[in-house]
Design a protein that fits this description.
Elements lengths: L7 H12 L15 E5 L5 E6 L2 E12 L10 E8 L14 H15 L10 E3 L3 E13 L4 H15 L1 E2 L2 E4 L2 E4 L8 E2 L7 E8 L4 E4 L3 H6 L2 E7 L5 E8 L5 H35 L5 H4 L2 H4 L14 H11 L10 E2 L7 E2 L9 H37 L3 E2 L8 E2 L16 H14 L1
Helix pairs in contact: 2-3
Length: 431
Amino acid sequence: MKDTPLSNCERDFLLQAIEEKKRLDGRQTYDYRKIKITFGTDYGCCFVDLGKTRVMAQVSCELIAPKENRPNEGIMFFNIELSPMASPAFEQGRQSELSVKLNRQLERCLRNSKCIDTESLCVVSGEKVWQIRVDVHMLNHDGNLMDAASIAAITALCHFRRPDVGIQGDEVTVYSPEEREPIPLSIYHMPISVSFSFFQQGTYLLVDPCEREERVMDGLLMIAMNKHREICSIQSSGGIMLLKDQVMRCSKIASVKVSEITELVGKALENDKKVRKAGGRCGFAESLPQERITALKMDKTPVEMMDVTERANDIVQKAGVPPQTVASPVVPVPGLGQVGQGLQNTWGLEEDEEVEEEESDISGEEQEGKVTQMEEEKYEKEESRGDVVEISDSEEEEVVILHPETPNKAKNTGFSSHQKGAASSKKGQKK
């Protein structure tokens, strides 16, 4: 499985933010991420957290035959493992180009800089020497693996203790830690790598790039330096040309960062030494929250009980009368509960009653509609039959006789204009 590539929108956003001197995690241009150094239970095991990047370094040793050209010197061996657990871009069982580059850079930083006295690792000249092996495992990848690996490796070497040996004739005896106190390695200085990323063909510079910033960078410069401002190794990668002023500027920044990191490493080693000497919990045992996992009883918290009554009275006097927000419960129907006024509960029986009321309303409306329709049909029949009109001889009296079945219709209706004309014409004919 390979890592998901960045989209054009993400790339443009990152470059635009870098041009405006802004970073995704809110850091400034020359700011390092938070560094946390912890140690394992055994000597030589170190964990380094550089932001979200997590690295573990483990140092081990064994007696082997020396090299023919260097019979009086021990051997230093470095191995960097990129696990798929750290990033989906790493593949299992296959050495990638990144791992080869990191391994070579770590060897230049620690072994070629002669930071460790290899002659002190010799037991018997030409026969037995100590081989110091440093295994660096990437636990989580969020950028700048080289800096985290260099800090973890040099801290683990400083924390490591090799067994003591005794020589009697041709016999070499290796003593256990219970028999003799282990011996630390002889370290001259502590080289630490500082990475610089360049963007827009060297126009913009960032210290300690994260994983997304590494994807859009044009070049990378790694400077390994100790606190004495001695450059141990320097390596540039990418298709950019750096000026002398840019390299000098980066070296000045690296000297400041290396001094701060070296001081942090020294404090971490000193604290671990004090804890181990005092017999307290250290290493992996310290990171386990035993109160939550292995014990169900928590320590009692001391509470000051002096002048409790006076303080309580003062609080009661200053506090007002609490408002009555919740009324007593009301039980309108057995099986139902109601708290407060004006709250209608539509559960249970009340819901059935509402349904019945709605059904009764619907049936009443239907009945009214049927009655109105029957009255209209009856009225239309009456109009089709017509009214009976009788006209008397006198002009003053006008009598209208309606059908007996329509007593409630217009009682005070008179003649229309054409009816009056017809009535007058009939009267003239009679005369």
